[in-house]
Structures are given as structure tokens and as C-alpha cells.
Amino acid sequence: MPYARERAGIGDGQLGLLLLCLGSGSMLMMPFVARLVSKVGCRAAMVAAVCGAMACLLALAVVSQFSALVIFLLGFGACVGTADVTMNLQGSMVERGLGRTMMSGFHGLFSVGTIVSALLISVLLGVGFSPLPAVAVLVALVLLLLLALGRQMLAYGEGAGAPMFTRPSRFVLLVGVLCLIAFLVEGSMLDWSAVFLTTVRGVDISQAGIGYALFSVTMAIGRLSGDWVVPRLGERVVLLGGSALALFGMLVAVLVDSQWVTLAGFVLVGAGAANLVPVFCSAVGKQRVMPVAQALSTVNAIGYLGILMGPAIIGFVAHLSTLSIALLLTGALLLFIMASAATVVRGS
Length: 348
Known about the structure:
By secondary structure, this protein is an all-alpha fold. The chain folds into 2 domains: 2-152; 170-347, Up-down Bundle (Growth Hormone, Chain: A). Helix content is 82%, strand content 0%. The longest helix has 33 residues, at 66-98. The model has no long low-confidence stretch (mean pLDDT 88).
């Protein structure tokens, strides 16, 4: 994004609009993913989404017109949204077929992919690659993985007779709102942890990213171990305990005036929030009121509102009060997940 901003010569307002395009493209596509999967199958939808995302990513590395950036970001977001829903559907089908919990591990590997790709691109840019060759290396790696493993994906999801739209059930809407809260907490770490460290805790700006780095690594570890933890503790305990731990971490990070304690609080937030969304996806995959693909599309679309609107809402509350209060209010929303844990488990 900094390179695209420099090429296009755009200001903060236009950059904000570009960032909004990514999530908007995902949300606009998600309602149609279930129909696409029912027509062409999971494997074909996933391959098309990944290839489309890679093509858009290559274009984003070179285009300089603002209108072109908007178009390709919308396209990239649509492909990512399609892949997101299809991956969760694949995971749900594998869980049901094997009769055991696996969703946390799938989401954990998603986190690992995020960390590895960010490090890879950063290293390539750091040693002198321009954006296009750096992105081309990542695209080549992704396409090699797709070529090697794509045939192992399950070909089809639900049958072609599934209706294009189904009215969301109350349970699916509830889980969607809970996902929104979980994504809002994750987004608060992504967008505001560094700002909090620099403006409130006095951390040097060059070191401010360590808070989100610790949060991300902890979340990845928590998800990779989730397939062992969730069956042993149970989904209700994971939702209750995870939400309570994340809330405690947020309270510690904000209320204790210490840089090290704040970082420890961010670690607790990552550990607590790690397996919330995987449990929600598993619960939606087990319900039988809605077709699973449409239910997952609905849950993902609602959850993405937390990613899209969350940073702006937190910023607005911080403007009216303080960033500390805004983060505390975000953490307080986890009480709703704790209150709904039993309903999620019963509904699944």
C-alpha cells in the first residue's frame, strides 16, 4: 500500500477509501459464494478465487491510476471473500466427515500463512526488490502450492438444488454478531495497539509494532493447538474461558501503566481470542436449519463488518473520549460472547 500510494500520488482520504475497497469487495461477493459453490463445486470455486486473487495482486503491484487501484482492490477482495467462505466450508465438511474438531488448526495455518507472507514480502523489499518482482515470488509460491495440493480438495459441497438465498436463521445471525465482536477485538489489536503503545505508553515508534506481533504469534500458537484444546475442554469452556482471558488481557493492557505489562496484556488477548472464530465456524457447520455454505457466507459477511467498521468506530469513540476507554469498551463486548456461549453450543 505505501508503494501504491506513492505511485498514484494519493492522500490520506483516498488511501482510506482504497482500504475500504478490500473489505467491501469481500462483503459484496460473500452472499453469492454459496450459489457459486453449488454450481461449480468447492474445488473449482477455490482454484478460481486463488488465481483471481493472484492476478489482482500482480496488477496492484504496478497500476498507478486511482480508479484502477479501486477496481483491482474490489476484485482482490471479492476473490479473498470467495476463498474465505469456501475454505471454511471445506473445513466444515472435513470435520463432519472425520467426526472430530479440526477448524482451529485450519485457522491456525491461515495465521501462519499471513505471518510467512508478510515476512517474505518484507525481506524481498528490504533486500532491494521492487514491488512487482516481490509479489511475483509470492504468487509463484502460492500457485505451486495450489498445483501440488489443489487436487486434494473436496470437489463439491452442497447439491446444485440449493436455493440461491435462504433467510438467515436466528442462530446463524447470532453467531454472525459474535464473529463481528471477535473480529472487532482482533482489529483493535491490528489497527490500534501500535498507536496505544506510542501515544499512551511512550514506546518509540520504531518498536510499536511489537505489540501486534506478539498478539499475532500468540493467536497462531493458540489456533494450532486448538484441535487438541477444544475437544478436551469443550466448546463452551473455550468460549467462556477464551473471552474471559481476552477481556482480562485488555483490562491489564489498558489499566496498568507499564510498557511490559501492556505487552503481556496483548499476549493474553491473543491467547483468549485465538479459538473463538474457529468454534463459531464449527458450530455453523453443524447446524441444519440453513444450507452450510449460505450460513457460512452470512456469518463471514457479518463478521467482516467488524473488520470494516471496527477501526473507524474505535477511532470515533477515542476522539470523543480517550483511546483507553475505546479499547476497554471493545473488550467489554466479549461479555456478550460469554453470555451466549451456552446458546452457541446448544445450537450447533
